[in-house]
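>> received
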Amino acid sequence: MINAVMLKTALATLKNDGVSGLFTAVHDRVFPAQMSSYDDFKHLFLGKIGLEIGGPTRLFKRGNLVPVYPDAGRIDNCNFSAQTLWEGSIVEGATFRYHDGSEPGVQYVAEATDLNMIADDTYEFVLSSHVVEHTANPIQAMTEWKRVLKEQGTLVLVAPHLEGTFDRNRPVTTLAHMIEDFENKTPETDTTHLAEILALHDMSRDPAAGSRADFEQRCADNLTFRGMHHHVFDTALLVELVDHMGLQITAVEAFRPFNIVVIARKPAEGEAVSNEQFRGENSTWASPFQADKRGTAAK
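>> returned
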């Protein structure tokens, strides 16, 4: 059934991207893409124990972009609050239900930047879909995600490409800015990007936000709602961030309408990391986004 938000989204897509853009958006929703290389990485999740930050998300379900859920042995979860815009009420304990037929995983309520309740080298994989942009200190968050990964463990990181989202009028964040956030121990109360968001957020691409007043109120109380995108990504930036974390990138793919996927591995102690094939003029990934094609990182 088509609801009011879906209708507003369709009309906004038609206005912004024309009939072809609307057709593409409908096609991508009805026939979601799967990573072309997922079958090569499936063994990394089969029967393995992992942790998802945020979620659950349809992108990890069967028939979707990175269909990890049906393959995993168990997935635990961490969310920032016992009440969120996306999941509603959350209860800690063995309550994380991510896939029919799978036993529920352990649910934690904690900041993505502070997983102190989880020991080092606990999980064989970590999943994160559309979380890193909501985090005021993404390097601190990813430091924790890397810490709880076992050696040779896998990170699946999904972030929104600005070109397909309400961020399209904002500048791409720099890695240098994220490094400053880490060095300055920037907390989740940070409002550095608030003025930019209020000025440049494309409301026509965000019908779920409701009225302008509703949107501004949620931004003003972001510590409760976590709806703001502190940082803005293109594919090259997400690659640079993962490389900065000292992770060995194994796959990069970008998909319409707005998803960037990076799969990376935590190296063994003393192992050299080289991501040159994914960076700069020598990169091997392809992207459907014009913003990437204008840069030097996409082929």
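>> The beta strands are 49-53, 74-79, 83-84, 88-89, 93-96, 105-109, 123-129, 149-160, 248-255, 259-265.
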